[in-house]
TrEMBL record:
Gene Ontology MF term list: RNA binding
Residue intervals of the RRM domain: 21-95
UniProt feature coiled coil, ranges: none
CDD domains: RRM2_RBM45, RRM3_RBM45
InterPro entries per the UniProt record, alphabetical: Nucleotide-bd_a/b_plait_sf (IPR012677), RBD_domain_sf (IPR035979), RBM45_RRM2 (IPR034206), RBM45_RRM3 (IPR034207), RRM_dom (IPR000504)
Protein name: RBM45 protein
């Protein structure tokens, strides 16, 4: 991972302190700061760990920060830690944790930034416009994904696994063409709707648009 620095971003040390050494992770609510340190110490020297807690009850919100001494260590943690932690670079400290926490769940943007895509982690949090939810085509939990280029199973799985509830990703190859085709299935129709909403027309890799449509799964789509 190579991280470029804008000339307007201030001194290199300031950038390291505020942007490149602190990561934000989702964790089990039972984790202590020591548990968090133990899970992430393999990636580098940790300066501190902190867990975000409910100000009223003192209970963990299932979110935490880990700050490393070097940007390369933070980048390694993001790349190599288990995907369940949903690790991303944290916002600078001058942005409140509540604000960043809200952005982490709900700031839906149509572009990937490495492993830092802020997909909505829970479909019920996603801010669909009412007009956009009135889908005319029958919906289901299963999707068909087509592209001009062939898919790599692991990469496509990682892309669609950003939406919670992925049950399987089956990449199929046509020996007569070089196009890509895959079948994706989620545990709920809500997850499938969100995946189609975000990834239909998405360029992956850049310049190659994905076509995502619903596939009949045998269930009553009126639900």
């Amino acid at each position: 991972v190579f991280i470029a620095q804008s000339r307007a971003s201030g001194s290199h040390r300031d950038v390291e302190d505020e942007e490149l050494t602190r990561i934000f992770v989702m964790i089990p609510k039972t984790y202590t700061e020591e548990d968090l340190r133990e899970k992430f110490k393999m990636y580098g020297d940790i300066e501190y760990c902190s867990i975000i807690k409910n100000k009223t009850t003192g209970e963990s919100k299932g979110l935490g920060y880990v700050r490393y001494l070097k940007p390369s260590q933070a980048a390694r943690a993001i790349e190599e830690c288990d995907r369940s932690y949903r690790a991303i670079l944290a916002e600078p400290k001058n942005k409140s944790s509540e604000s960043f926490e809200h952005d982490y769940y709900s700031n839906m943007r149509p572009e990937l930034r490495g492993n830092t895509l802020p997909f909505c982690m829970q479909p019920e949090f996603c801010g669909f416009e009412k007009a956009e939810t009135r889908i005319q085509e029958p919906v289901s939990k299963r999707l068909s994904v087509v592209s001009r280029l062939p898919f790599i199973q692991e990469q496509l799985f990682a892309l669609f696994d950003l939406v919670p509830g992925l049950e399987y990703c089956d990449v199929q190859r046509d020996p007569h063409t070089n196009s890509g085709y895959a079948v994706i299935q989620y545990s709920t129709a809500a997850s499938a709707i969100y995946a189609k909403y975000k990834l239909h027309g998405f360029e992956y890799p850049p310049g190659n648009r994905l076509t995502v449509i619903f596939l009949e799964d045998g269930n009553d789509s009126s639900e």
